[in-house]
Specification:
Elements lengths: L17 H16 L17 E11 L6 E6 L5 E5 L6 E5 L6 E6 L6 E7 L2 E6 L4 E6 L5 E6 L7 E3 L4 E4 L4 E5 L6 E6 L1 E2 L2 E2 L3 E7 L2 E6 L4 E5 L6 E6 L16 E7 L4 E6 L4 E8 L1
Parallel strand pairs: 1-19
Antiparallel strand pairs: 1-22, 2-3, 3-4, 4-5, 6-7, 7-8, 8-9, 10-11, 11-12, 12-13, 14-15, 16-17, 17-18, 18-19, 20-21, 21-22
């Protein structure tokens, strides 16, 4: 979303599989603790979720001019980024190793770009308050069609069958990828109640990861119950030396399933980080 606000050791490649193992453990924990099929009633809150730290596997250059709103890999390992701010919003194909923008489509200056997701040979991009989503041909970035929606657009991901969208509240919306019709919705809760300000999303290993706007935390969410099964605390990820020029909040999660690697960045950040989770 637009909403502007103002040392870790390297991890060996063998430890990159840790993220998948932690996903499995979190899912097993939810099955053990949930006392209903949905676990989403107002009095049925999950137990307090564990907090995970991180190690930086590698840092890559990132365009400081990118107000990152969405980040996603396709199944070939190509990285795409959606950026925001009126007059600066774009869809990009990015070279991971250098941070270079290889392909770009600019949105009309009146629109504020938001989350993106790759689905087959298409890329879908939300806008913040215009209620418009654009579907692009992945190769050419030509616009194939446009959808409308009634809420704000913040984050977007997909689970192989449905789009999953956030709007800054505690609600996640499940949408048909061909019609954008709402098929279900889910309230996200932790042990204290609804978790608001859900922002950029990524679907990883059967769970939804969500940036919590204006924090350094990512929620790990069970898509069946809405329960937060874990928190990823990224405090200290961006070092003071990288804050000498203006930066904004953490935002941007991308998972490359081919290599089982997790990446995060932020708005106007100079780096994109590959991280490994630490229990």
């Amino acid at each position: 979303m637009a909403r502007s606000t103002a040392p870790h050791t390297d991890r060996s490649s063998g430890d990159r599989r840790l993220f998948s193992l932690l996903v499995l453990c979190a899912c097993l924990g939810v099955l053990a603790c949930s006392d209903s099929p949905t676990g989403n009633g107002p009095t049925n809150l999950p137990p307090q979720a564990p907090v995970y730290g991180f190690n930086v596997v590698r840092a890559y250059p990132h365009d400081r001019g990118a107000f990152t709103q969405g980040l996603a890999f396709d199944d070939q390992g190509t990285l795409y980024e959606g950026t925001g701010q009126r007059g600066q919003s774009s869809l990009r194909r990015v070279e991971l190793s250098s941070g270079a923008v290889l392909q770009r489509h600019d949105l009309p200056t009146s629109l504020f770009g938001e989350g993106i997701t790759v689905f087959g040979d298409r890329i879908t991009q939300l806008t913040w308050q215009a209620g418009r989503a654009f579907v692009y041909d992945k190769a050419s970035f030509s616009i194939l069609r446009e959808f409308t929606y009634r809420t704000e657009g913040w984050g977007l991901t997909q689970d192989g069958r449905r789009f999953i969208m956030s709007d800054g509240t505690a609600t996640l919306y499940f949408l048909h990828p061909d019609t954008f019709a709402e098929t279900a919705r889910l309230t996200v809760r932790d042990h204290r109640g609804p978790v608001i300000r859900l922002n950029e999303l990524e679907y990883v290993g059967g769970e939804i990861l969500a940036n919590i706007w204006q924090t350094d935390r990512i929620a790990r969410i069970d898509p069946r119950t809405g329960h937060v099964t874990g928190w990823i605390d990224l405090t200290g990820l961006l070092q003071p030396s990288d804050r000498r020029q203006p930066v904004d909040v953490l935002n941007g999660i991308a998972y490359d399933p081919r290599t089982d690697r997790l990446f995060v960045t932020g708005k106007w950040w100079p780096k994109l980080f590959e991280i490994a989770l630490v229990p």
